[in-house]
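Possible regression after last week's pipeline update?

I re-ran a chain I had predicted before the update to compare outputs. Posting the input and the new output here so someone can diff against the archived version. Not blocking, just want to make sure nothing changed silently.
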Amino acid sequence: MPILKSTYKPPLLFQNGHFSTIYSAKVRVAPKVNQTRERIFLPDDDFIDLDWSWSKAKTNHLVILLHGLEGNAQRTYIKGSAYHINQNNMDAVAVNYRGCSGEPNNLYRSYNAGATEDLEAVINHILQKDHYDSISLTGFSLGGNLLLKYLGERADVPKQIKKAIAVSTPLVLKESLEELNKTHNIIYNTSFLLDLKKKIKQKAIQFPEQTTAEEVNKIKSLLDFDNIYTSKAHGFKDAYDYYHKNSSLQFLPEVKIPVLLLQAQNDSFLSPSCFPVDIAENHDNIFLETPKYGGHVGFYNKNNIYYNEKRTVEFLKTL
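New output (post-update):
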């Protein structure tokens, strides 16, 4: 498919990628969304919490929302998406990954950028309700990588899954880590690392036989975290093995449903490889839109309806 021409042009201040990223994460007021929580149990006796919100009118279309690294279903970008989806006659369910709903999960493992077995469990649970004829997936950052890997690694997906949208997605995990390590990204890098270290300190208390305070104290970077915790807890040789096996770029050629990739050119988290022009130009189902502005999940727009939220609904309704 040809590359999509973007019409997004925010006010001058929001043309700065860092400003739009930080404002959208820390300052934007989330639209009011009434969510109802459901806990589902996984085959390994762990759990995932789902936060549902509904259209005013009965609908057979559901959108599954997948948050980013150290996010949850209460984040402004998730609630903003759920609100606009509900206003356009679709139900929404926001997934809290293991350990992200405000309560530690039961196991030493938690979530990662390629844990598609958990997404599959959520989808299977929803399909058992036998209510939705049409299901769409929307993922942000790590959640975008997760859904793209899910769609591309399977010979087929459930027929009810019709479309997907991936926003600000690090398609090559190792390269995005390298971008985050650059000086201009120190605020984000530090914030992620602090949050992740809090989680592993809790894990060390829960599972002293799995990790030690000494190991936790060795974590000085995101790479350290993935070497010491993520890779070991989830069955990978090391951080680079984890990045290699779970980066979604390699799965894009096998995607069989229409997918919108929305990647801002001034997203400081993304490397050049995260803009797969060649794949999109030669793939019937990959629609790549690369607006000049937007930062990382920072597509500010008037009336508190963000550009990515508007494009999500347009994409779901027009294909």
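Follow-up from reviewer: compared with the archived run. The chain is about 35% helix and 15% strand. Marking as no regression found.
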